[in-house]
Amino acid sequence: MARVSKATMIGELLQIDADVAPILLNIGMHCLGCPSSQMETIEEAAMVHGIDADDLVEEINTFLDSKA
């Protein structure tokens, strides 16, 4: 089962499971296709968007676990 951390790159996250995109879009991360966003970590992206990185990682991992 896939797990992510705050250090996971957005590009890597979307390769793990593209179905995560709506979670990111719903919190205001509308730049998922932008090349620079692909090289940001979840923590960096969360910081830019004013989101708690730990909460975001927990939400993503819960989502990924539910698909296992």
TrEMBL record:
Coiled coil: none
InterPro entries listed in its UniProt record: CHP03980_redox-disulphide, DUF1858, ScdA-like_N_sf
Domain DUF1858, chain residue ranges per copy: 6-57
Origin superkingdom: Bacteria
NCBIfam families, per the entry: prismane_assoc
PANTHER family assigned to the protein according to its UniProt record, in alphabetical order: BSL7085 PROTEIN (PTHR39341), DUF1858 DOMAIN-CONTAINING PROTEIN (PTHR39341:SF1)
Protein name as catalogued: Hybrid cluster protein-associated redox disulfide domain-containing protein
